[in-house]
Design a protein that fits this description.
By secondary structure, the chain is of the alpha+beta class. It contains ten helices and eight strands. The strands form three sheets. Strands 3-4-2-5 form a four-stranded antiparallel sheet. Strands 1-6 form a two-stranded parallel sheet. β7 and β8 form a beta hairpin.
Length: 321
Amino acid sequence: MRHLRLVPDVTSIDFMRYTRFWLIVSLIGVIGSIGLLATRGLNLGVDFRGGTLIMAATPEEQPLSVWRDVLGDVGVGEVGVTEISDDTGQGRHMVLIRLGTADMEEGAAPAVDATRAALSQAFPEVQILQVDSVGGKVSGELVRAGFLAVLLSFLGIMVYIWLRFEWQFAIGAVLSLIHDAIVTVGVFSLLQLEFNLTIVAAVLTVVGYSINDTVVVFDRMRENLRKYKKMPLREVMNLALNETLSRTIMTSLTTLIALFAIYWFSGPVVHGFAFAVIFGVLTGTYSSIYVAGATVLWLGVKRDWSKPDASAGTQFGGAKV
């Protein structure tokens, strides 16, 4: 029986040859992402900013300028209108309306009622499909909860890797995860895509995917360290990466196929989630090699797990560090 093979059974790719270059690329990506967050910030969704989202539809297309003119006369504070696609196949013209109701003392209900009335008068056949409101206090709590969830996931993973392997592996794994999270959030800042609780869930999904790939490589590396006690650490790392290459490519490819299907054929509500995970899968696969692996290579590890390995010299691009 023939099996699908994307890579040969045996490969000898020198992954660690360009480690210095890719570490510089990673550093630029992280610094650039932090700079974007400091200057441009994030396009925070209602979950974090507070306010009201209204999804409305009309049988025929209406210019967005008309929607904005109608809502601008309602007097409900900040108003944003975005056109979204109708994935139900009914051919409706759908828009997503954002109302800045978080700071209104009387709450969101009067603003929503006024918006309904104005839309019904301007577009008699309009349909209000969905209304979501989040208060300012709740949005602040969601920001703290989202940040705490990501932080605790990093700490828990670090402890797990430390107990299962060695502290060098734990540091490498956490640096890899921090890299993936910061760069993913940086892309959302660069493209000004909406950042909400769904994206926080996507970042946590990326963290889980990345650490799974990293642990597979680390486990094979530990086996090879015990098996080849005199092999230089750089070659042990390359051997582990080559031995897990087929598994890494197949896992990433099948995951990406499912994610692209979600992105193209699902509704706009999950587009951000799918995009974040697609980008995270790519960066997570990369960082498992050139962030996690390179960190372990730089720190060095024990060869027999009972005494330091004197021959585990760290090499970047063929030069010892």
